[in-house]
Write a sequence for this structure.
């Protein structure tokens, strides 16, 4: 029963390690290669310890875990990425891809949802579509940076101008997506 509770709590946070329980102790086996195993282990331990009755947590690599020979050092990955775009399918797909790579992401589909999220959560990075119906990404960018200057903002748009590139390009990343 405790194993199912642990699996559910981890799944709700976007993680799916193999869970083994023995009494009040839990062993988590990670079968997917990650760029920062120690950071993932700390996160999984913290989440698992929040389950009632769990006393001890160990995190190990599973039998299918492969160490990447291209990454000899650990990188700090953003734990929260806020994705703001009115193209629902695009932002949901991007969120799923980030989550499979152990980036925590939250997709929102308009400016109001983005500002509500920023009122309660502080993402490390916000990927923001510049052109959306309503107030648009320009106002979201302005409000986000004034209230949370530490948030890195990546602006993407399929309809940007050279003027907007110069305006936003100096303060962060500016990407274009193909308009469909």
């Amino acid at each position: 029963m405790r194993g199912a509770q642990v699996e559910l709590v981890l799944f709700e946070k976007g993680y799916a390690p193999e869970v083994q329980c023995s009494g009040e102790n839990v062993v988590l086996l990670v079968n997917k290669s990650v760029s920062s195993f120690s950071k993932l282990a700390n996160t999984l331990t913290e989440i698992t310890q929040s389950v009632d009755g769990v006393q001890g947590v160990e995190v190990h690599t599973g039998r299918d875990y492969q160490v990447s020979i291209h990454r000899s050092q650990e990188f700090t990955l953003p734990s929260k990425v806020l994705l703001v775009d009115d193209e629902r399918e695009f932002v949901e797909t991007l969120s799923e891809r980030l989550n499979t790579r152990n980036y925590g992401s939250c997709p929102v589909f308009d400016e109001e949802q983005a500002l509500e999220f920023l009122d309660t959560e502080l993402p490390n990075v916000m990927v923001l579509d510049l052109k959306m119906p309503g107030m648009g990404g320009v106002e979201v960018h302005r409000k986000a940076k004034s209230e949370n200057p530490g948030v890195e903002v990546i602006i993407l748009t399929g309809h940007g101008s050279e003027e907007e590139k110069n305006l936003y390009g100096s303060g962060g990343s500016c990407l274009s997506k193909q308009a469909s």
Summary: Residues 37-49 form the longest helix (13 residues). The helical segments are 2-12, 37-49, 88-100, 111-120, 136-147, 162-169. The chain has six helices and eight strands. The beta strands are 18-22, 25-30, 56-61, 81-84, 105-108, 125-129, 152-157, 173-176.
